């Protein structure tokens, strides 16, 4: 795994997201309502909108512009207008650091 530091664990609050750029890729680091941390592509596949500016509820993030929700574990859109998934990246927690591997995205379901 070619993971690199994206942010600190405490940099992301529960039910929120922050955007980081790793190897030129915009990534949303998201802490869901259970406190689990996810890394997904930050750009909505419908309207080129930053997902990290959206709303986190349960295990989804919603694009603020048009309301498409994406599952944090798979990147799969749950509703229209988006129909293409966003990439999901492996996350490792190393002490207080969130490490993300943008070179080996997980396969979308």
Q: How would you sum up this structure, described in words?
A:
- The structure is a single chain.
- By secondary structure, the chain is mainly beta.
- The protein has a single domain (4-100), classed as Rieske Iron-sulfur Protein (3-layer Sandwich), CATH 2.102.10.10.
- The protein is 0% helix and 39% strand.
- The chain has no helices and ten strands.
- It has strands at 4-8, 16-22, 25-31, 37-41, 55-57, 60-62, 69-71, 88-89, 91-94, 97-100.
- The strands form three sheets. Strands 2-3-4-8 form a four-stranded antiparallel β-sheet, with no helix packed on it.
- The protein is globular, with a radius of gyration of 12 Å.
- The model has no long low-confidence stretch (mean pLDDT 95).
- Residues 4-100 form the Rieske domain.
Q: Count of DSSP helices? A: 0
Return Rg in Å. Answer: 12 Å
Summarize the helix and strand pattern as letters.
EEEEEEEEEE
Any low-confidence stretches, pLDDT <50, length ≥5?
none
Report the structural category.
mainly beta
What form results from the Cα inertia axes?
A: globular
CATH class: Mainly Beta
Instruction: Give the tally of β-strands.
Output: 10
Q: What oligomeric state do the depicted chains represent?
A: single chain
| Name given to the CATH homologous superfamily | Rieske [2Fe-2S] iron-sulphur domain
In CATH terms, what is the fold-level topology?
Answer: Rieske Iron-sulfur Protein
Mean pLDDT: 95
Biggest β-sheet, characterized?
4 strands, antiparallel
Widest beta sheet: strand line-up: 2-3-4-8
CATH architecture: 3-layer Sandwich
Helix content: under 10%
Strand content: 35-45%
Count structural domains.
1
* End-to-end distance: 21 Å
